[in-house]
Specification:
heterodimer, A: alpha/beta, three-stranded antiparallel β-sheet, 13% strand, B: 46% helix, 22% strand
């Protein structure tokens, strides 16, 4: 369990029965999102939430159509789920983002068809930190351009607790939440299911787990009370220091990026401004990302892409979709600054990275004794 | 995360990169060969100083993941002082075992013995 949540947990637990603790947590999360408690259901994490939202929506709405739109840069929990549905006869359109990783709203508009039932677009990309304009997408889907039965699912695992989210103002039907991304416990997440009915539909999603009709019938299974309380409290803590943390992380990010860019041949992947503070994806020309990560690992932990994708070692599908060439995609690393990252940590990281980058570049047959191409 | 992807033995060679560098290619005894594969993501340049059927020095330049970098570092240590016959008959599988290199990665690393054998052949032809 994320240790930030341990202190006040006991107080919430001792306030009443486990059921009360769960409902207090649900109310707290709902309050943060400006929705009603009945619109929040607890799951085992964002992967389950994504599966429940996408497969559940597909099954509940297949009488209206079998077309789903998503993007090429989604998390595997969305892409693999869409692939599963594709194998079951659903048609999936994968939208390619621009070079900054952003979805063109007009492109999305063109892909909506009479039988489109669901659009699933992540809020913040887990590899690049790029923020999609979910307000604009929600408005588009609500407008007369789209058919009224098009549901909008947002994988918000990377944005919840990091960006302000008023779901009452966004036209989002389903939104996935993760516990451990916000310093909460692993093995807990949530799914927001909007109660606002669209004209031509009844139930938004069909449950995927049966046996007990827990969580308003959407997700059967005994609730992990301690995890749920931990999630709620972790989210509350994130929200309390959201503004302060955002500006602190932006400052640290600037120090790190400015320092790294002095080395030359360092490229930020993804949009510069529409990006979550503290989330950096850079390509370092002439340095293999995996070699750099390993060489740094005794001092600092960075990753080559998705931390959730460690079972496979391949070039990032996200960077490929953004049109980044193979060499720069192989040279990409992801650096995440967080609540416990200090200015001293950043300075140490910069020092270590400079040393290792120079060493690896000096050993690159193309760069040895030559200048960088860029 | 892939920070724990590499065995400890690989980490040592990755951090030290022993014998990384170049040898003067205009020397009569230095043999050089470069190979690259954009898909697998490596570029390797080997420099072997061979005289009187003995590998006197072994240097390399490499762009690739940690397995490429570390394996070349270890090979450079082993091959310095070997006769060309010993080098040509060297059992790379034993080396991969000792470095705990995963089976799937060993296929990519096959390029290294191939390059060494090509250099030895060049030496033999020249001799």
């Amino acid at each position: 369990m994320g240790y930030m949540v341990t202190q006040r947990l006991a107080r919430i637990f001792t306030a009443g029965k486990p059921k009360d603790a769960v409902e207090t947590a649900r109310k707290s999360i709902a309050g943060i999102f400006n929705v009603t408690p009945k619109e929040i259901i607890f799951t085992s994490g964002a992967t389950e939430s994504n599966n429940l939202a996408i497969v559940g929506a597909a099954q509940a709405n297949q009488n209206f159509g079998k077309h789903i739109i998503t993007s090429l840069t989604e998390h595997k929990a969305v892409l693999d789920t869409c692939q599963f549905l594709e194998n079951k006869g659903f048609e999936i359109t994968y939208i390619k983002p621009d070079n900054n990783g952003l979805i063109d709203i007009n492109k999305l508009k063109q892909e909506i068809k009479i039988d489109t039932i669901l659009v699933s677009i992540m809020h913040v990309n887990n590899e690049t930190g790029v923020i999609q304009d979910i307000a604009a997408i929600g408005n588009l889907l609500k407008s007369s351009v789209a058919q009224s039965h098009v549901l909008f699912h947002v994988d918000a695992a990377q944005s919840v607790g990091r960006l302000s989210l008023d779901l009452n103002k966004l036209n989002v039907d389903l939104l996935s939440v993760s516990g451990h991304k916000i310093y909460g416990p692993k093995g807990i997440g949530a799914l927001y299911i909007s109660k606002a009915n669209k004209s031509s539909q009844g139930q938004k999603i069909e449950p995927q787990m049966h046996g007990g009709r827990h969580e308003y019938g959407y997700r059967s299974g005994t609730l992990a009370t301690h995890q749920i309380v931990g999630l709620a409290y972790a989210l509350q803590l994130c929200i309390e220091c959201l503004e302060q943390e955002s500006s602190r992380l932006s400052e640290l990010e600037n120090i790190l990026l400015t320092g790294l860019q002095k080395l030359g041949g360092v490229f930020l992947n993804g949009a510069k401004s529409e990006r979550k503070p503290g989330h950096i994806n850079i390509s370092i020309e002439g340095v293999h990302g995996e070699a750099l990560i390993a060489a740094l690992s005794s001092n600092i932990a960075v990753s080559s892409g998705s931390a959730c994708n460690s079972a496979v070692s391949a070039t990032s599908h996200v960077l490929k979709a953004m049109g980044i060439c193979d060499e720069l995609a192989q040279s990409a690393i992801r650096i995440s600054l967080g609540r416990f990252t200090s200015a001293d940590d950043v300075r140490l990281a910069l020092e270590c990275m400079t040393q290792v980058i120079n060493k690896l570049r000096d050993s690159n047959p193309r760069l040895h004794a030559n200048q960088l191409l860029s | 995360m892939q920070t724990s992807y590499y065995p400890e033995k690989i980490m040592r060679y990755l951090n030290e990169m022993p014998n990384s560098g170049v040898l003067p290619v205009d020397s009569q005894t230095v043999y050089c060969l470069q190979e690259e594969d954009d898909i697998k993501g490596y570029k390797i340049k080997l420099f072997l100083d061979i005289e009187n059927d003995t590998i006197r020095d072994f240097k390399y330049l490499v762009y690739g993941d940690g397995f490429f970098v570390a394996t070349l570092g270890r090979i450079s240590e082993i091959f310095c002082g070997l006769s060309v016959k010993q080098a040509a008959n060297y059992n790379f599988n034993e080396l991969y075992e000792s470095l705990e290199i995963p089976a799937n990665k060993r296929l990519d690393l096959k390029v290294i013995p191939k390059m060494i054998n090509s250099i030895i052949l060049k030496y033999k032809i020249k001799r």
